[in-house]
Each structure stands twice: as C-alpha cells, then as structure tokens.
Amino acid sequence: MDVAGYTASIFIGIALGVIGGGGSILTVPALVYLFSVDAVLATAYSLFIVGTTSVVGSISYFQKGLVNMKTAIVFGIPSIIAVFLTRVFILPAIPNELFSLGDFAVTKSILLMLIFAVLMIFASISMIKKTEELVDEIPQKQEFNYPLIILEGSVVGVLTGLVGAGGGFLIIPALVLLSKLPMKEAIGTSLVIIAAKSLIGFIGESGETVIDWLFLLKVTSFAVVGIFIGMGLSKRINGEKLKPTFGWFVMIMGIYIIVKETMLR
Description:
Structural class: mainly alpha
Strand order of the largest sheet: 1-2
Order of helices and strands: HHHHEEHHHHHH
Oligomer: single chain
Number of strands: 2
C-alpha cells in the first residue's frame, strides 16, 4: 500500500502540473486509504503537501508574469484568516463522536471524509463541464467585487481548513468572474493563494498534533517530483482535454468515499 501511496503522490503532482489544479483533491483520500492516516491528521498533512506543491507550481507562472499579486492579496487575506481560524478553533471544537444512527456512529473523521467527498463531487462537475465561457484571455479593467470576494474567500478558507483541499476549482472561476482576470493569470494567482492559505493553515495546527515529518516530507517530495513531470508533459499534452477524464475519476472517488464511510465500515 505504501508503494501505491507514493505512486498516487506522484500522480497528484502530475495532475497539478498538467491541468493546473485539481490534483490536491486526491491528497486526503491517498493519505487515509493508502497510508492509513487518521482523517483529521490527514487534513493537516494535506495542508502542508498542497501548500508546498502549490509554491513549486506557481514558480513558472511567476516567471511568465501570470500572477496578479494585488488580486492574490485581496482574495487571499479573508481566505487565510478563515483557514487559520478553522484549524485553531472550529476543527478542535468538533466532538470526536457527533451522533449515532442505530449501530452507526458518526465520528469527526467520518464527517470530514463525507464533507471531502461532497467537495470532490462538486470539483469533478467543474472539471467535466465545458468552461469555455470562463476562458477569456483579453485583459479587462481590474475591478473588485469586495463583498463577494470576502464571502468567497472566507468559504474557501473554511473548507480548506476543514478538509485540507486547496479549493482551486472554486478560486479560479471566482478570480475570473469577480476580479476580471484572464484564465491563465487566474490559475497562477490561485496557486499563490492556495500556497499561502494552506501553509499558514498548517502553521495554525494544534501543538498537540504529532507530525511524522519524515513521512510528510517523503510524500511531499514525491508530489513535487510529479509536478515537474506534469509541467514537462503539459508542453505536449492539452490539459483542458484531459480535465474531463480526470473529473470523472474524481467523481468516482468521491462516490466511493461516501459508500465506504457510510456502508462499508
């Protein structure tokens, strides 16, 4: 299973490199089901892995001038605050056992995995459906819808704090629609936002959390190797054409998690 887990870690990086996002949605399932990491701890590990891989993935976008730092700051601040507060206050406040339905006890770990599965299904739908209406490479006058940006950033931050996913599938459309960024610039800017909020969220982790740094760094290293492979492949492969196929895979995984957590325990 470890071999499968490290292989999955490379695949996560490849998906990020080729598609420009979405690979991080597989990080928690890989940690939980392939490495047998507790779901709550897996969300913490995922923040570090997603944050680090997003830093590496954003470098090429910086070099090409495809990162809008003003937008990253405006959108990132509420998101960073939300993810930090979620890790410090909201997540620890959730009881280990929420309620029981007959012999079935809904625990914190089950709740997080179910939230994650629903998030995966929504992410898969955004990958499967055609996004031509968002692809606008014509520069537009920069403007900010501050109330919606604060709301969107906060929601994404809370979700990231709870389940450890980057939320690029929510951030990129928001940057295009709410900040009028071209698609490629939105992808680069989203990677910077994801990197910042994920790593700061990880820093906010409780001191009681025991981190296996050797394991965490190994998984992160495999994911980073995958990013470089993915960026190489992206020059030969059209990521937009692969995105729907990857989306169907993510949807199947999301449905599997729901079935496994509710019926196969």
